[in-house]
UniProtKB/TrEMBL annotation:
The chain crosses the membrane at residues 26-45. GO terms for molecular function: 1-phosphatidylinositol-4-phosphate 5-kinase activity; ATP binding. Residues 285-295 have a biased composition (Pro residues). It comes from Coniochaeta pulveracea. It holds the Pfam family PIP5K. This is PIPK domain-containing protein. Keywords: ATP-binding, Kinase, Membrane, Nucleotide-binding, Transferase, Transmembrane, Transmembrane helix. Residues 1-367 form the PIPK domain. Gene3D superfamilies: 2-Layer Sandwich, Phosphatidylinositol Phosphate Kinase II Beta. Coiled coil: none annotated.
């Protein structure tokens, strides 16, 4: 069994059955500690604050325990590791991603200590309280948080991630749409691009590979065309969400935008009459995290011109300015700006309020409002 399968197995076991308590005797404890220490990839995970996440799922997002755990149960006689599908190493942070078999949830590793400690110690309580009272929030809905607190070679050598979050999959429904005829689904991971990115800005990017630069923030060269009501609700949610993040020193978060083609834009082409490309077709009948009821930014908001369906969520809000690694990065960038060339701050070294304002301006710039 390979690395990806062993990590997937450890996550599935933690979600479905939780950490198995050891027998209360010395020999069993010694054997457990020895086997755990020599584990390279299959780490024993605890659920962190499980009661809080269970409360959010059941009482605020209308996700029953049975429905939630069904997404992680292996089917057809498969083993536990086959319940999750590896998506691969994605993003500049080196996080690994898995999806559940029904595509409703993603499992993302949080490998950096500064990030998972920030979420656990600083943001988790405000996040839980906020999400319980803001059903229209665009912050991605996190349904579980897993952590390994035991000494293991895989954790020490960083061969396997020590923490994972489980979150809703904003791309849920894409596979089903493909089976029905294949509407175009596009996605962007958007951050303000006016910041200093060494990979892009030093020597015009010649010192960095194209593979590395391709993992930087995307750019959206179009407009999100919205009605006045949808635009006002969009901006109101972003204002409130980013206010929470800035109050807890978070920076470098992004807007994950999905655009789904809802009708044929070429008047001269022929559309298969059996192909349903209406807005209702892309809204899942059983979204993994609701309310509010569709349409919402989780299920799909129709554009004011009728050409697209948009989904959106705010992701990656785990980088906080007061943690040790961000402080070190800020010192290095400030020194570089002072001694070599002044490029200004990076998105990970600016102040939380300054990042918030640039992020909101970016979102406003991408939206075009069409009054009724």
């Amino acid at each position: 069994m390979g690395r990806q399968e062993l990590i997937a197995r450890s996550v599935t076991v933690a979600i479905l059955w939780g950490f198995q308590k050891r027998a209360n005797d010395v020999l069993s404890n010694i054997l457990f500690l020895i086997s755990t220490f020599f584990s390279l990839y299959q780490l024993p995970f605890d659920k962190i604050r499980p009661a809080d996440f269970s409360n959010l799922r059941r009482n605020h997002w209308n996700v029953s325990d049975d429905a939630y755990y069904d997404s992680f149960r292996p089917t057809g006689g498969k083993n536990a590791e086959e319940a999750l599908k590896a998506i691969g190493d994605m993003g500049y942070s080196g996080s690994t991603f898995y999806s559940t078999g029904d595509q409703k949830y993603l499992v993302k590793s949080v490998p950096r200590h500064s990030e998972h400690s920030f979420f656990r110690d600083d943001l988790l309580t405000p996040y839980v309280q906020y999400m319980a009272t803001h059903p229209k929030s665009l912050l991605v809905r996190i349904t579980d948080f897993l952590g390994c607190r035991h000494a293991a070679l895989g954790r020490i050598l960083r061969l396997a991630p020590s923490h994972h979050i489980v979150m809703e999959n904003i791309m849920y429904g894409q596979e089903e749409a493909k089976k029905k005829g294949g509407m175009d689904w596009e996605q962007w991971d958007l951050k303000p691009t006016s910041y200093f990115f060494p990979e892009r800005d030093i020597a015009d990017g010649r010192l960095t590979s194209e593979a590395t630069k391709s993992q930087l923030a995307d750019e959206f060269h179009d407009k999100i065309i919205l009605s006045r009501q949808n635009a006002d609700e969009f901006f109101a949610a972003l204002e409130a969400d980013t206010e929470l993040l800035a109050a807890h020193n978070a920076v470098d978060y992004s807007l994950f935008l999905v655009r789904i083609k809802s009708q044929n834009e070429d008047p001269g082409s022929v559309t298969d009459p059996g192909q349903d490309t209406s807005a209702d077709d892309v809204v899942p009948t059983d979204p993994p995290a609701a309310p509010p009821a569709p349409p919402s930014w989780r299920t799909g908001i129709p554009s004011a011109d009728g050409k697209h369906i948009f989904r959106a969520a705010v992701l990656d809000f785990f980088w906080a300015k007061h943690k040790v690694q961000p402080k070190l990065m800020t010192f290095l960038i400030n020194t570089y700006n002072l001694l070599i060339h002044h490029h200004g701050p990076m998105s990970i070294t600016t102040t939380p309020e300054e990042y918030r304002q640039r992020f909101l301006r970016m979102c406003h710039d991408y939206v075009e409002v069409r009054d009724d």
